[in-house]
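RECORD TYPE: inverse folding
INPUT: structure tokens
STRUCTURE:
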């Protein structure tokens, strides 16, 4: 974990944003009051066809959940970022987003014209707004991460949201192994059973990360991660490695 904070701000609940993270920097997200959900998508800014791949990320690291040590893979076998610090222990990447219809059914309709900044946003449309800023659209949507959220599975295979997975002050830090376009929203998790629309804000910090060494925890967490870092090295030589 790096303590060199280059920039810090707050992303309020039910909002969305995007940023360009540079290789060698880290993004630290902090749950301010507990119960946060941060939807995230990742793209290669020099080739927007390359984006976060949830199935590859899970299967190559033999996991259903994400935590410290895991790397987030693109659909070209490269590593966007590594989870270098995490106090939560479980982040899910299989349940996708809320939609406008889901939000309306769960919590009613609060439109912008009537409620202004207190309107109820949803994860799917939030990502579409951010995608449009870079010339992308519905066809470019991928399966997203839901940081801070946990979903369990019963004996019949039904997925259930686990309340209280993230507490106030919990944090996750992602070290970026290549330049990455990051899309974020703080809309509710699609399985959240809360009676009222949950608005959970997070603090985000951009930090200067320490250099990756041969004994790096994430690099050696799985043998597959070593191959992912090798793919990144080829990419950064300028060959593209497609």
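DESIGNED SEQUENCE:
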């Amino acid at each position: 974990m790096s303590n060199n904070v280059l920039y810090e701000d707050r992303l309020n609940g039910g909002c969305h944003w995007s940023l360009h993270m540079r290789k060698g920097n880290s993004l630290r997200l902090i749950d301010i009051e507990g119960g946060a959900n941060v939807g995230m998508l990742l793209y290669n800014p020099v080739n927007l066809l390359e984006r976060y791949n949830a199935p590859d990320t899970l299967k190559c690291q033999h996991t259903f959940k994400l935590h410290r040590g895991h790397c987030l893979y693109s659909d070209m076998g490269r590593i966007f970022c590594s989870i270098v610090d995490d106090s939560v222990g479980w982040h899910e990447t299989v349940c996708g987003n809320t939609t406008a219809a889901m939000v309306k059914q769960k919590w009613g309709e609060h439109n912008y014209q009537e409620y202004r900044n207190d309107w109820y946003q949803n994860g799917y449309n939030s990502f579409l707004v951010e995608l449009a800023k870079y010339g992308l659209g519905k066809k470019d949507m991928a399966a997203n991460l839901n940081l801070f959220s946990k979903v369990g599975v019963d004996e019949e295979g039904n997925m259930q949201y686990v309340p209280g997975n993230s507490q106030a002050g919990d944090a996750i830090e992602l070290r970026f192994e290549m330049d990455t376009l990051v899309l974020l929203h703080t809309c509710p998790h699609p399985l959240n059973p809360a009676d009222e629309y949950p608005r959970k804000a997070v603090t985000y910090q951009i930090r200067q990360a320490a250099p990756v060494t041969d004994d790096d925890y994430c690099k050696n967490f799985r043998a597959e991660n070593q191959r992912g870092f090798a793919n990144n090295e080829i990419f950064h030589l300028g060959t593209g490695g497609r």
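NOTES: Helices lie at 54-59, 100-107, 112-115, 123-132, 223-239.
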